[in-house]
Write a structure and sequence with these properties.
Belongs to the aldo/keto reductase family. By secondary structure, the protein is of the alpha/beta class. It has 13 helices and 10 strands. It has a single domain, classed as TIM Barrel.
């Protein structure tokens, strides 16, 4: 597996397996399948409610813990120095591990500076190897990066051929922070499969459009975490290291970038309200 060196020297796989919207009941099986297929980076989050499934798979898979790279994220309801510290210990318990390889702030809301302080302490205490952000747009990313004693290793953003994050990348490069792509396959957007630029490249290299889309991100130095519950698709997503796009190919994909859809922007007040109330809607045990 190809790796990327983070700004603290840690090597991280460039391609991993994400478990967003994988049910708690399915998660253990899916992660076991992914590890068996060859994935070593597994990405979960407190708000996915499936950390225990990931932890069970890690315990059962037979792969040494030091050969796996586990990422999780602190949710808004656990923001602040005290709450975040408590939630880190809870994530460690659910993941059946004594350290997390990469820990992120999931959303740029509530007391995220306090959350960051708890994360920095967790690094110093040996509970976490690297820390970063998720969904921090360039303005809030710079605010955090300038504030932080430990600079963010990654910023996880919606990144794919239709959402290429060039503005964010330019700011992140100043801190040697890598983009980690969620929705790297555009969340099932049917245009991905029919776009003439992508379909022509797929035919040229005898690959699928999805493989071309993932290869584009990898060649930009972007970490990608595609999700599938089907083993064959997991294998297909991993099979992207035996070909390379030319500079001309890369340039042909760049014009596919589109303006952000404001409905799903973190600057949209309605989306912010939805995220702030997420636990109340999806987790009946949390009625804060």
């Amino acid at each position: 597996m190809q790796t990327i060196k983070l700004n603290n020297g840690i090597e991280m796989p460039v391609l991993g397996y994400g478990v967003f919207q994988v049910s708690p009941e399915e998660c253990e099986r899916c992660v076991l399948d992914a590890i068996s297929t060859g994935y070593r980076l597994i990405d979960t989050a407190q708000a996915y409610y499936n950390e225990e499934g990931v932890g069970n798979a890690v315990t059962r898979c037979g792969v040494p813990r030091n050969e796996l790279f586990l990422t999780t994220k602190i949710w808004i309801s656990n923001a602040g120095e005290t709450n975040a510290a408590r939630s880190i210990d809870e994530s460690l318990r659910k993941l059946h591990t004594d350290y997390i390889d990469l820990l992120l702030i999931h959303q740029p809301f509530s007391d995220y500076p306090g959350t960051w302080r708890a994360m920095e302490k967790a690094v110093k205490d040996g509970k976490v190897r690297a820390i970063g952000l998720s969904n921090f747009y360039p303005d809030r990313f710079v605010d955090m990066a300038e504030y932080a004693e430990i600079k963010p290793a990654v910023n996880q953003l919606k990144t794919n051929v239709f959402s290429q994050q060039w503005e964010a990348e330019a700011e992140m490069n100043l801190y040697d922070t890598h983009i980690m792509a969620w929705a790297p396959l555009a969340q099932g957007n049917p245009e991905l499969l029919t776009n003439p630029v992508l379909t022509a490249l797929a035919e040229r290299y005898n690959k699928t459009v999805q493989q071309v889309a993932l290869r584009y991100l990898i060649q930009r130095g972007i970490i990608a975490i595609p999700k599938s519950t089907h083993t064959e698709r997991m294998k297909q997503n991993l099979d992207v290291f035996d070909f390379a796009l030319t500079p001309e190919d890369m340039e042909s994909i760049r014009p596919l970038d589109k303006p952000d859809d404001f409905r799903w922007s973190h600057r949209n007040p309605e989306l912010v309200k939805f995220l702030l109330n997420y636990d109340r809607q999806f987790n009946p045990d949390n009625k804060k």
